[in-house]
Amino acid sequence: MKSTPSSNKTSSKPGSKDSTAIRIGLDAKQRGKSAEILKAILANQHVLYLKTRNFHWNLVGPRFHSLHLFLEEQYQRLAKAIDETAERVRMLGEVSPGSMQEFLDEASLKECSGEAIHGLDAISVLRADHESVIRELRESIDKLSDLGDAGTEDFVTGLIQDHEQIAWMLRSHEA
Ligand SMILES: [Fe+2]
Questions:
Q1: What CATH number is associated with residue 128?
Q2: Which of 24, 42, 77, 127 has its CA 20 to 30 A from that of 168?
Q3: Total structural domains within the chain
Q4: CA 120 to ligand 1 center in whole angstroms
Q5: How far is the CA of 39 from the centre of ligand 1 (A)?
Q6: What would the pLDDT profile of 51-107 be if each residue is shown by its tens digit?
Q7: Which has the closest alpha carbon to 38: 167, 161, 163, 149?
Q8: How far apart are CA 47 and CA 111, in angstroms?
Q9: Which stretches does the entry tag as region Disordered (predicted)?
C-alpha cells in the first residue's frame, strides 16, 4: 500500500499550534472557498427565517390559524438549518458572520417590513423565495463539487431537499 504525504501524521504535541491544524483533506484555500459559499447561504437563511416569522405574526385572512401554525413549522426548520450552516462554517476553520448587517449585506433575498399581509400573498412571496434559494443552492453544489468538498456538497444537497419540500407545501396552498 502506498503511503501518503505528511497530512496523515498524527504525532503533533497536544497544545502545539500544529496540533490544532485542520487535516481533513481540504487545504485552507479550499476550505475558505467552501466557507464563503456557506456564508452566502446563511445570509439568505436569516432573511427567509425572519420573513417567515414576520408573516407568522402579521397574517390576516380566513385561514389565519392553520397558516399561522404552518409558518411556525417552517421557521423552526429554518432555525435548525441556520444553526447547522453556521456550525459547518466553523468546522471548515472559518468564523461565522453573526450580525444582521452582515447577513443583509450578503443576502440575495430582500426582507419585508412588518405589516399585515393576506395569507395567500404571504404564501406566494415565501414560495418564490424558497424557489430562488433552491436555484442558488444548485449553483453552490456545482462549485462545491469542483472544490472537492464532498461533505459540504452533501450538506447543501440536504438543504435543497428541505427547501423543495417547503416550496411544494407552499405551492399546494396556492392551488
Ligand atoms: Fe408564534
A1: 1.20.1260.10
A2: 42
A3: 1
A4: 19
A5: 27
A6: 999 999 999 999 999 999 999 999 999 999 999 999 999 999 999 999 999 999 999
A7: 149
A8: 6
A9: 1-24
